[in-house]
Amino acid sequence: MATSHSYFKLHMENLSDLKKLLSIPKDIVITSHRNPDGDAIGSSLALYHFLNKDGHTVKVIFPSEYPDFVAWMPDAEKIIIYDVDVEGATNALQKADIIFALDYNSLDRIDKVGDIIAPLSCTKVMIDHHLYPENFADYIMSDPSSSSTCEMIYDFINQLDQTSKLDKTIGECLMTGILTDTGSFSYSTSPKLFNTVSELLKLGVEDYKLQDLLFNSLPEKNLRLLGHSLNNRMEILEEYKTGIIYLTRDDYDKYEIQRGDTEGIVNYLLKMKNVKFAAFITEQPNIVKLSLRSKGDFSVQEIAQKYFKGGGHKNASGGASFTSLRSTIKKIKEILPEYKEQLLKS
Q1: How far, in Å, CA of 181 to CA of 190, rounded?
Q2: What is the pTM of this model?
Q3: CA 116 to CA 107: how far, in whole Å?
Q4: Confidence category of residue 106, pLDDT binned at 50, 70, 90
Q5: I need a labelling partner for 334 at 20 to 30 A (CA). Which of 2, 51, 54, 109 fits?
Q6: What is the pLDDT of residues 264-276, one digit of tens each?
Q7: So what CATH class is 6-215?
Q8: Every domain range in the chain assigned CATH 3.90.1640.10
Q9: What is d(CA 7, CA 324) in angstroms, rounded to the nearest whole number?
């Protein structure tokens, strides 16, 4: 485990050491979390394309496969999937001079890949926007106020004084994570974010085209799944301004649900005026997963961390339950009285 850390978001002078390391071509591996989303793949590929320009040998490794809606991204097909190619991923990690950890802040988020990384003596760099980073990297750029890790990768390149190396391809990768992690600028926005987006548009990034690729390319089954979720699997608890949608293993079989197919379903609950807390609960083969969302000042991060061994952001967090689907739904309902006063605030 690393013994010293450079929080160069706060202490810019410590960035010089990392600049020196990156000034000579290195073997670099970029990693991100299991079940990678738009921000994970966007930040990873943006950094990949950026580092390639300086002659580094760069590989991207994910623990599991990425969803189809981001498969169009430049060089996505070169990503090494640990679940598919254990030997290739392991060899790349063991050869690395530098390992970047993007969009996660604890090694348990990358499962067996984390077990490989933990004892390695190479330089480790974390860039992430989730709360409470763990102490495993030599350099940590942690900013929970950022909308996305993609926004932070732009900041990182800017702090390296190398924004001249940004191009349309890198910009499209960054915009992908920003769009997906903000729900098309519905939350986690700031004046700084829109300044960043303005710079990306100047590179020739077509935000309308990306919106179309990311959000308007669904197969028929996804719309049928959405209809089923809203019509048959939704429960509204008006007294707590809460909405719940759940999916069973039978639903997964019937609708042939694959990675990424359920993206965004939880957000439909928040479209209702009187729903402040939304829970999307899915029955996996060995685990029950929860995606939690909220409006305003109500924090789902606390619920995810306290009750479901998870975490994330104030308005968007996730967690897991190791009991049954029925028991997990019951647990959500049982903890609601604890938060009733907060939920009923206007």
Answers
A1: 13
A2: 0.87
A3: 10
A4: very high
A5: 109
A6: 899 999 999 999 9
A7: alpha beta
A8: 6-215
A9: 41
